[in-house]
Design brief:
Elements: H1 2-10, E1 16-18, E2 32-42, E3 45-52, H2 56-66
Antiparallel strand pairs: 1-2, 2-3
Length: 87
């Protein structure tokens, strides 16, 4: 997933993120708050950088941060799993 995201960035495409934690994989433009600018793996951890952008939700996030609040970040993904038993 990190490699795919970086390929998207290399092509010059934007990787947008939303404030709050949506229940599906669609990006809702009215909730966009930031753009992912960098992503890499550090061991088993995905590390990234993002830029808060001046959308209504981005300004809400900026205000929270400027006033000492903390925001968490989570990723969302989709994939297939195969059940393995006996291990």
């Amino acid at each position: 997933a990190v490699d795919q995201l970086n390929e998207t960035l290399r092509r010059g495409e934007s990787v947008l993120g939303e404030a709050d934690h949506p229940s599906d994989l669609n990006i809702n433009l009215d909730r966009v708050s930031h753009m992912i600018t960098e992503m890499y793996m550090e061991g088993a951890n995905g590390i990234g950088k993002l830029k808060i952008i001046p959308t209504p939700m981005g300004m809400l996030c900026r205000t929270i941060l400027e006033n000492g609040g903390k925001l968490g970040v989570s990723s969302r993904g989709q994939g297939n799993l195969n059940e393995r038993t006996g291990e």
